[in-house]
Amino acid sequence: MGEPAGIGGEIAIKAWLDRLAMNIPDFFVLDDPDRLKRLGQRIGMEIPIKTISAPDEVAATFPDALPVMPLGMDIDVEPGATNPDYVPAVLESIDRAVEYALSGDVSGIVTNPIHKKTLYDGGFRHPGHTEYLALKSAAGSVPVMMLTCPGLRVVPVTIHMSLREAVDALDTDVIVTNGIVTAEALQRDYGIEQPRLAVAGLNPHAGEDNAMGDDEEQVIAPAVRALQARGIDCFGPAPADTLFHAAARSTYDAVLCMYHDQALIPLKTIDFERGVNVTLGLPFVRTSPDHGTAFNIAGSGTASPLSLIAAIREASSMAEQRDAARA
Questions:
Q1: Which residue of 174, 203, 247, 322 has the smallest Cβ count within 10 Å?
Q2: Rounded CA separation 128/126 (Å)
Q3: Is residue 242 part of a domain?
Q4: Bond preceding residue 239 cis, omega within 30 of 0
Q5: Is residue 96 within 8 Å of 30, Cβ to Cβ?
Q6: Which bin fits 211, alpha (ψ -120 to 50), beta or left (φ > 0)?
Q7: CA–CA distance from 212 to each of 202, 244, 256, 257, 295 (Å)?
C-alpha cells in the first residue's frame, strides 16, 4: 500500500488499467478496497475491484478486476494529508507481504512509497523500508539498495544521511560489503555470470593523486583490491564525472557510488520515470518505484505509473531468474 495519503493507490489503479498494453505480470494490492474505490471515483478512473482472501485467487481475478486483499482497518484519508493513525495499516501491509514472500505464496514484493516522518510520528523506529524488511525477513546478509533504469544500475554505499555524515561513515569494509552483495545479486537475480563493478571515487577527479583528497588512496582503493582478491571483476576508484556517459556505461554492470546523490542524479537524469529501487541481500525479491509519495499531486489523477510498472516487471524478471537458478 505505502503511504495512503500519497500517490500509491492511484498508480496501482493505473498499472492495472495498463496491464495489457504494458504486458504487466499479475499482481494484487494489500490495501482497503473501499479506499481504492473512492480514489478511483475521485480521479475519474473507476475500475472493477475484487476482494480476495489468498494469493492463489489472483490469477483468476486479475484479468477482469484489480485484486485487493483487505487490511485490518478501514482507511479514510484525504490525499496529501498524512495521518499517523494509519501507520499500523501501512506496517500491516508490509508485514503480510513479507509473510507471503517467505512462504513462497508470492514471487516478490513491490512496495509503494512510504512517508518516513509520518511513520516516525506513529512510533516507527527504523530508517526506512530496507532496514525494516531486513529485520522482518531475518536476512543473513546486509541489505543493499540498488537503483536501476534501462542502461544503468547504481548502488549508493552510504544512503540517507547528510553529505558530511556520509564522508565520515565511508570506510573500506562498508564498500567491500556492498560490492560482495551486489556481485552476488547480479549473478543470482540478473543472470550475469561474471559481473563487472565500477567503483566511483569520492573527490573531484578521484583525488587526482591526493591533490584533492586522499580518501581514494586510504579508503576506496583498498576496498577495490579486497574485492578483486575475492575474484570480483571491478575497477576504480574512478572519477565520478566520467563514469556515466554512454560509452562508460558499457564497461560495467553496476557502479558502487560513495553517497546518495552521486548515484541518484545520473540515474534520474537518464530515465526519471522508469527508475526502480531494488533491495539486494534479502531472501525474497523486493522492488519499489524510485520516487516519493508526491503529496503535491496526490488525488489529482496526474501521477505517472511508469516507475511502479517498471518495478513490477523488474520484480517478476528477478523472480524468474531466481527460479531458473534454483532449477
A1: 247
A2: 6
A3: yes
A4: no
A5: yes
A6: alpha
A7: 10, 21, 20, 18, 41
Are residues 241 and 294 both part of a single domain?
Answer: no
- Secondary structure E strands in 87-205: 109-110, 144-149, 152-156, 196-200
Of 242, 270, 298, the last residue of a domain is: 270
Name the one residue in this structure whose C-alpha cell is 494469493.
Answer: 55
The verdict on residue 277 lying in a domain is no
Asked if 63 and 1 sit in the same domain, the reply is yes
> Do 133 and 20 fall within a single domain?
yes
What CATH number has the domain bearing residue 249? 3.40.718.10
Domain boundary among 225, 245, 270: 270
Q: What's the domain count of the chain? A: 2
Of 164, 165, 160, 157, give the one whose Cα is nearest residue 256: 157
In a domain, 278, yes or no: no
Q: Quick one: 202 and 263 in the same domain?
A: yes
DSSP characters for 262-304? HHHHHHHHH-GGG-EEEEESSSS-EEEESS---TTTTTTT---
State the Cα–Cα distance between residues 24 and 311, nearest whole angstrom.
10
Residue 276 belongs to some domain of the structure: no
User: By the 8 A CB rule, do 170 and 159 touch?
Assistant: no
Structural domain boundaries, residue 206: 151-270
Pair type for strands 276-280 and 144-149: antiparallel
In tens, the pLDDT along 119-145 reads 888 888 877 777 888 888 887 667 899
